[in-house]
Amino acid sequence: MRRNNYQRVIQHVTLNQEDSVTKRVKRLSHLNINEIKTITPQDLLSTASGPRNRILLFDYKESLDLFRQVLNLPLASKNFETVLINVPHRLTTEEILRYGHIKGLFYSHEEAKKVVIGLGEIINGKNWLPRDVTSQLLHHYRHVVSAHTSPTVVDLTAREIEILRCLQSGASNLQISEDLFITESTVKSHLYQIFRKLSVKNRLQAIAWANQNLLS
C-alpha cells in the first residue's frame, strides 16, 4: 500500500531544549522513527500560523508543568495535531480536550515498539487512540451535537472571546483572572453570560463551540 506523499513533522514540545527530551522520547527517536525534533512553548507561540501538518508531541508529566507555566498555547489551531505519551492512568474527557486535536495517546505501560508503530501511523494521517479514549470522545461530541442549538454567529464581547480562548487552553478560573487582571468573580460572571449566549451548560460544551466556530 502506497504511503502518503508528504511526511509530517513530529515536534516534542518541551520547557527546556537544553535538557534532552524525556528518556521515553529518546528511545523512540532511536527506533527507526523519523527524527523527533524539539520546540519550546515560546517557539510554538511564535510559529502558530506557520506550516500545517505538524504533530506536537507531549510527555504527560512534563506537560502538566508546561500548562502551569505557559497559558494560551494555540493547541486548538487547525495547523496542529497532538500526541500524548507516558500517560499513567485514564484521563478525564476535559483533560484530553486540553490537548486540542489529539491524534494519538499512549499509556506509560505500553512497549516502545508499539508506540513507534503508532507514531508511524499518525504520521501517515491515521488516529491511534485507545478504545476507552475513543469512547470518551465519541460520547462527548455526540452529546455536544445533540445539545448544540446555538447559531454560529453569536454576539460575544471582545472580553468574552478572550475568556473563551483561555478556556480552549485549559486555564482555570484563577488562571484566567490572573492572565486578564480581573477577579475570579468577574470571570464567573463572564462565563455565565458566555454559557447563556452559546446555549451551553458547561466549560466542555463552550470549548467545543469555540473549537468549531472561533477562527484559529
Automatic annotation (TrEMBL):
<keyword id="KW-0238">DNA-binding</keyword>
<protein>
    <submittedName>
        <fullName>CsgBAC operon transcriptional regulatory protein</fullName>
    </submittedName>
</protein>
<dbReference type="Pfam" id="PF21155">
    <property type="entry name" value="VpsT-like_REC"/>
</dbReference>
<dbReference type="InterPro" id="IPR036388">
    <property type="entry name" value="WH-like_DNA-bd_sf"/>
</dbReference>
<keyword id="KW-0804">Transcription</keyword>
<dbReference type="GO" id="GO:0003677">
    <property type="term" value="F:DNA binding"/>
</dbReference>
<feature type="domain" description="HTH luxR-type">
    <location>
        <begin position="149"/>
        <end position="214"/>
    </location>
</feature>
<keyword id="KW-0805">Transcription regulation</keyword>
<dbReference type="Pfam" id="PF00196">
    <property type="entry name" value="GerE"/>
</dbReference>
<dbReference type="InterPro" id="IPR016032">
    <property type="entry name" value="Sig_transdc_resp-reg_C-effctor"/>
</dbReference>
<dbReference type="GO" id="GO:0006355">
    <property type="term" value="P:regulation of DNA-templated transcription"/>
</dbReference>
<dbReference type="InterPro" id="IPR049151">
    <property type="entry name" value="CsgD-like_REC"/>
</dbReference>
<dbReference type="InterPro" id="IPR000792">
    <property type="entry name" value="Tscrpt_reg_LuxR_C"/>
</dbReference>
